[in-house]
Amino acid sequence: MRQLTFVKAGQPLEWREVAEPVLQGPGEAIVRPLAVASCDLDGAMIHGYTPFAGPFAFGHEFVAEIVAVGEEVQGFQPGQRVIVPFQISCGTCERCRRGLTQSCTTVKAGAMFGLAPLGGEWGGALSDLVRVPFAEAMLIAVPDGIASEVVASASDNLPDAWRTVGPYLEATPGIPVLVVGGGGAGSIGLYTVAIAKGLGASQVDYADTDPARLELAQSLGANCIQISDKVPPKFGSYPVTVDTSSMPQNLVSTLRSTEPGGVCTSAGIYFRPVALPLLEMYTVGVTFKTSRVAARSTIPKVLELVTSGRLHPELITSHHATWDEAGEAMLSYTTKLVISRG
Predict the structure, then answer these.
(1) Cβ distance 253 to 264 under 8 Å?
(2) What gap in Å lies between CA 269 and CA 271, rounded to an integer?
(3) Tell me: the pLDDT tens digits for 272-286?
(4) In degrees rounded to 5, what are phi and psi of residue 197?
(5) What is the DSSP string of 227-262?
(6) Backbone angles phi, psi at 194, to 5 degrees
(7) Which helix (H) or strand (E) holds 35?
(8) How confident is the model at residue 332 (pLDDT cuts 50, 70, 90)?
(9) How far apart are CA 271 and CA 258, in angstroms?
């Protein structure tokens, strides 16, 4: 079968012939990817902003069709469309039972599709077929009437955005939110804007350096703040703030914009140490959260918003490509790319 492979930063991904995956246990499934979305991390890897070296199978946000299931898998059958969470999780270990599906103890730390350097080789979404272990625990059926392309990013970036604002807007409806992007930030900040509006935030302010993302955020209902390389010390005072930029100065300004008792969540990935204004955070009383998203635990929240019509992820998709175009398309997209088979 064909597998799109990351070889080296700065060059197109390569289609390579590899052996087809087979069921290795009664609780597994084989799926055929139908729609694959770019993750914000994908662009960073392709353009050399991460320490990950190839070759490895690429892609980890996808909707797929089930091809085969093991004899112990219940509730799923061939032909069914499913969302495949990007992280591998067993669903039964102590951490999975607590909802920490990003830190399953049954598999190697960091186990996920499309990023073998972190958690071992599990295949990639941009492959003809993918083996899914723990299928009954991992897979989530796509609701009827929802196109595969609409929820292709539900594997990772959509739940990553939900967890930054969802719990707080559910607990205190109507509170204002600040979202800070900038630099190479892609879709997560925009998904956050859309989710915050869908959950009824009274005000969503979005700061970014990129005119196209600012224009899109405004169309989603955000008040937009144009920033440059020189970021203001703070943007105001908000009970909920979100950093999606992976830029240290933006993170610091976001923290300083969190009101007393507020929560700041960073969905950005920082590969180098960052100096934080800890004394200011201590004095004000700021809760700072940074972690990998527990995707499997959070996907149902995203689907609830989509099926109710309060969230339209397709509005954030900036580029589309066919399966054969995937390698080149991954080099040139901006905010969010969705690759469709057929």
Answers:
(1) no
(2) 6
(3) 999 999 999 999 999
(4) -65, -40
(5) --SS--S----EEEEEE-S--HHHHHHHHHTEEEEE
(6) -65, -40
(7) strand 29-37
(8) confident
(9) 24
| Nearest Cα residue to 194 out of 242, 254, 263, 155 | 242
Question: How far, CA to CA in Å, does 315 sit from each of 43, 160, 217, 331, 336?
Answer: 19, 17, 10, 21, 10
By DSSP bridging, strand 29-37 and strand 61-69 are: antiparallel
How many CB atoms are located within 10 Å of the residue 275 CB? 8
Residue in the structure block whose two tokens are 């950005």 = 268
Q: How does pLDDT run across 32-90, given as a tens digit for each residue?
A: 999 999 999 998 898 888 889 889 999 999 999 999 999 999 999 999 999 999 999 99
User: Residues 111, 275: contact at Cβ < 8 Å?
Assistant: no
307-204-221 Cα angle (round to 5): 60
Q: Which of 31, 26, 206, 18 is nearest to 130 (CA)?
A: 31
Contacts of 147 (CB under 8 A, 6+ apart): 35, 314
Non-local (6+) Cβ contacts of 59 within 8 A are 4, 33, 36, 42, 113, 114, 124, 125, 126, 127
Q: Which of these, 68, 64, 63, 88, lies nearest to 78 by C-alpha position? A: 68
226 is written with which tokens? Answer: 């144009």
Rg of the chain over all Cα atoms, to the nearest angstrom: 19
